[in-house]
Write a structure and sequence with these properties.
The complex is a heterodimer of chains A (392) and B (114). With 392 residues, chain A is an all-alpha fold. Chain A folds into four domains: 83 residues, no CATH class; 128 residues, no CATH class; 76 residues; 88 residues, Serine Threonine Protein Phosphatase 5, Tetratricopeptide repeat (Alpha Horseshoe), CATH 1.25.40.10. Chain A is 70% helix and 0% strand. Chain A is built from 18 helices and no strands. Chain A starts with a helix and ends with a helix. About 3% of the residues of chain A have low confidence. Chain B is α+β, with helices and mostly antiparallel strands and 114 residues long. Chain B has a single domain, classed as Dimeric alpha+beta barrel (Alpha-Beta Plaits, 2-Layer Sandwich). Chain B has three helices and six strands; from the N terminus they run βαββββααβ. In chain B, the strands form two sheets. Chain B has a four-stranded antiparallel beta sheet with strand order 2-5-1-6, covered by helices on one side. Chain B has a two-stranded antiparallel ribbon with strand order 3-4. The longest helix of chain B is centred in the N-terminal third of the chain and has 16 residues. The radius of gyration of chain B is 15 Å and the shape is globular. In chain B, 18% of the residues are buried. Classes of the chains: A mainly alpha (392), B alpha+beta (114). At the A-B interface, helix 13, helix 14 and helix 15 of A face helix 1 of B.
Chain lengths: 392, 114
């Protein structure tokens, strides 16, 4: 709703649009509690928002003409202020393109997306990032100022603008999803919410011909495959369950099928993006039967690391290497990475040394406990060390 | 860190097309360097075949094929970064080419033209 209103007011006045949207929902909660939910709740909400906007414009005109004698906002004729499904989805799409702006850092973009596109409040965002609300508030303020100064036009996105910005948009949605999937918080609800919001927004991109590219489909396939395991990868206590120990019955088969569908859509054209490769890896993870699975996964990681270096990709690639060529030959590969500041690096080495040199494995696991901030991870690692001590 | 070009040479033109297994080993080697964030340029393969390779010499003498008067021909190159040339040499030593076929790798420090 904020997105549609912004289309009307222009991005400079996003606060007005947000105020009207939240007023509308407030009115809904009062009215619906007494009179019950109307037959068409969406139409109801937009009708109220429309009236509130008319009131606002009227008040504003009175105020501006009487006191200031000038109208700062060029408010168009109210007749073209309509809400229909097309406008709603177009406006949401445009809003995604506004929020995912390269003028802001990755982290700020994610915060903005959570607030403006997903309706999270400051506290929820702070919880997701394990940061103080004050920090998030400041970050959001700075990001909004940057957006305003950037003066990006929300009204009509041209084909050229969409094409030039789609990469940034996909990256932000990818990071938003990862923030949920690999979240710093142990709160399962927040993690699931982040993942499903990112998926919803990416799905929106596949509904418009201009943004329904092979890359978008590859990203959506990746999200579907990863989401299929959300239930299985943490236990009731919120502790991480390692891939090998996951109960496959908890994997969401329908999401895996959706993933297959979008992955096939993603093969239109010749382009292989990092999303294609990551979706390919996730596909093999969700397909446990093939005996060459890890070979395929290693090949995909090899290609991925050549497109873009990241420590996590390097570590995951080495894990796949160990699965194909054995732990022993993977140890020198792993040690060459030399990511001594990363808890995952020590976890990987702990895992690789566990069969052959238990004291070394314990040493690395202890190092990992020192480096990780996650409580549940510390617990999982401590259990691992206890088991290893028993085998000594 | 300095940059070094690793220049691959092969002896036999029939070795130019690797088997899938050889290809996999070469990819593992290349990705291993990339995993250390030491790959500057994944380079290119240089085709040695007739029609894809010619050598131009003095007095407009043009010969077909890759330059082979030193018995080996260049098959490709990559650029890596390393603190010392010895570190780059270690990377080259680990290349599976030596187990697979006859050839050599020349390691040369890059001096940038700018």
């Amino acid at each position: 709703m904020t997105a549609v209103l912004c289309r009307h007011f222009g991005l400079k006045h996003i606060e007005i649009a947000e105020d009207i949207a939240s007023d509308t929902f407030l009115k809904a909660s009062e009215h619906w509690a007494i009179n019950g939910i109307p037959e068409n709740p969406i139409a109801w909400l937009y009708a109220v928002a429309k009236n509130k906007t008319k009131d606002y414009i009227k008040n504003l005109s009175v105020f501006e003409t009487k006191i200031k004698n000038e109208l700062p906002i060029s408010i168009q004729n109210e007749h073209d202020f309509e809400f229909d499904n097309q406008i709603i989805s177009d406006s949401q799409l445009a809003m995604i393109f506004v929020v995912c702006s390269p003028v802001n850092s990755d982290e700020s973009q994610i915060c903005l997306a959570l607030q403006i596109l997903c309706g999270f409040n400051v506290e929820e965002i702070a919880n997701a990032f394990l940061t103080k609300s004050e920090t998030i508030k400041k970050r959001l303020q700075r990001a909004r100022t940057a957006l305003r100064n950037d003066n990006f036009q929300i009204k009509k996105l041209s084909e050229i603008e969409i094409k030039s910005r789609l990469d940034v948009v996909l990256k932000t949605l990818y990071l938003l999803f990862s923030e949920g999937y690999f979240s710093k918080t142990d709160d399962k609800q927040i993690r699931t919410a982040l993942c499903s919001e990112a998926t919803r927004l990416t799905l929106l991109l596949t509904e418009n011909p201009l943004t329904n590219t092979p890359q978008t489909n590859a990203l959506l396939a990746l999200m579907c495959f990863q989401s299929s395991r959300l239930e299985a990868r943490t236990n009731d206590k919120g502790e991480a369950v390692l891939f090998d120990e996951q109960d496959e019955n908890l994997w969401d088969k329908s999401l895996i099928e959706r993933g297959n569908y979008y992955l096939i859509n993603a093969t239109d054209g010749n382009e292989i993006s990092k999303y294609h490769l990551e979706a390919g890896i996730a596909y093999w993870h969700a397909t446990p039967t093939d005996q060459n699975k890890w070979k395929h996964i290693l090949q995909l990681y090899n290609q991925l690391i050549l497109i873009e270096y990241s420590p996590i990709t390097a570590l995951n690639r080495t894990f796949a290497f160990a699965k194909v060529y054995g732990h022993k030959s993977a140890i020198p590969e792993a040690e060459k990475l030399n990511l001594v500041e990363s808890n995952y690096y020590h976890e990987l080495l702990g895992y690789l040394y566990a069969d052959t040199a238990v004291p070394k494995a314990i040493e690395h696991y202890e190092q990992a406990i020192k480096l990780t901030k996650s409580k549940t991870e510390k617990q999982t690692l401590k259990r691992e060390i206890e088991q290893l001590r028993l085998s000594l | 860190m300095k940059e070094f070009a690793l220049i691959f040479r092969l002896k036999d033109i029939s070795d130019f097309k690797p088997t899938p297994e050889q290809m996999q080993e070469r990819m593992n080697w290349l990705a291993g360097i990339a995993s250390q964030n030491k790959l500057v340029d994944k380079g290119n393969t240089l085709l040695p075949f007739e029609g894809s390779a010619k050598t131009v010499k003095l007095n407009n003498v043009v010969t077909d094929g890759a330059y082979t008067e030193i018995k080996e021909f260049i098959s490709g190159y990559i650029v890596v970064k390393a603190d010392t040339i010895d570190e780059a040499v270690e990377m080259a030593k680990a290349n599976p080419i030596f187990d697979q076929v006859a050839g050599s790798i020349e390691v040369r420090e890059v001096l940038k033209r700018d």
